[in-house]
Design a protein that fits this description.
Blueprint (H helix, E strand, L loop, with lengths): L21 H10 L15 H7 L4 H20 L7 H7 L4 H4 L6 H4 L7 H22 L1 H22 L9 H17 L6 H28 L8 H21 L6 H26 L7 H8 L4
Helix pairs in contact: 3-7, 7-8, 7-9, 8-9, 8-11, 8-12, 9-10, 9-11, 11-12
């Protein structure tokens, strides 16, 4: 995703050769008198306006937090390319025998852990682009809620589908951002003309499909000690689609914080109920002892 040479905004993916964003193209056309004076102009805030609010975005803070945790894991394990399971477990990996028996905080901490260098590099590249776009459109508070709630939803889906495996990574939350953006663009939360969002929607859809197919192929044909958790991806994506759709239909404007908060609270409650269902369903496997429960899961007596 390149930047507009005039205003610095991110250009949609798969737009090779373009140098100006749709906002600047329409603005220049308006100055030349080529379009009507009352034509709808995209409402995405200019980069210099956003910078007046804070010199550091929440996307950058999340990026830094993930990198800081990665460095802590490297120091604790002495590895960089592929961290051992004991390190991930000690620092908060999402793992059925522990998560489902009371250590629910792992549904949050797993989002900031990564398998190794390749894993965090790819996730942070995606977070940097999708996060900046989502934060500029939703605002900092809503962006934070979407990121954290969909990340937890991805963790719940993962531990429900694969309770006997480790889950780490920010990709569940990143898929949540992608789902929220897709839903909001499709349902018309933002007053952008279709030509302005077509490239972004195509790029998001491409990102989602390729990652899910890549994950399925890697898991089927084997990727060494690295596996892609598509359950977390789908859990984050679905919850993001739901949240984005509700925000677009019920609370599209930032100047109605009570309605936006109500939508976020409703989705958070839905995720909480889903978590309770998964705990009740899968938790029986591990309530006696985590190790015995894991043996039972694999059919070992």
């Amino acid at each position: 995703m390149a930047n507009c040479v005039q205003c610095g905004r991110k250009l949609p993916g798969l737009t090779f050769g373009k140098k100006l964003c749709q906002w600047c193209m329409q603005h220049e056309a308006a100055k030349r008198g080529e379009i009507a004076e009352d034509a709808r102009q995209p409402v995405v805030a200019a980069p210099w306006i956003r910078r007046r609010e804070s010199s550091i975005s929440l996307t950058q803070i999340l990026f830094g937090a993930n990198v800081a945790v990665f460095l802590a894991m490297a120091l604790a394990s002495g590895a960089v390319i592929d961290f051992p399971g004991r390190t991930m477990l000690a620092l908060g990996a999402n793992y059925g025998p522990y998560t489902l028996t009371g250590q629910y905080w792992r549904l949050f901490t797993y989002m900031f852990l990564h398998q190794g260098l390749v894993h965090i590099a790819f996730n942070m590249w995606c977070l940097w682009d999708l996060g900046a776009l989502a934060e500029s459109l939703y605002g900092r508070r809503s962006f934070a809620a979407i990121y954290l709630i969909t990340g937890v939803a991805g963790g719940i889906a993962s531990v429900g589908w694969n309770p006997g495996v480790f889950t780490v990574g920010a990709s569940g939350a990143i898929f949540g951002l992608a789902g929220a953006l897709l839903a909001s663009f499709y349902l018309g939360e933002f007053s952008l003309p279709s030509v302005a969002i077509r490239g972004t929607v195509t790029s998001l859809a491409f990102f989602i499909v390729i990652n899910i197919l890549f994950g399925a192929g890697l898991n089927i044909f084997g990727g060494g000690s690295f596996a892609v958790d598509n359950a977390a991806h789908i859990g984050g994506l679905v919850s993001g689609l739901i949240m984005g759709a509700l925000i677009a239909r019920i609370a599209p404007h930032r100047d109605a914080p009570a309605r936006r908060f109500a939508v976020i609270a409703a989705v958070a409650m839905l995720v909480l109920i889903s978590g309770l269902v998964v705990i009740q369903w899968r938790g029986a496997l591990f309530r006696v002892e985590p190790v015995l429960g894991l043996l039972n899961w694999f059919g070992i007596r």
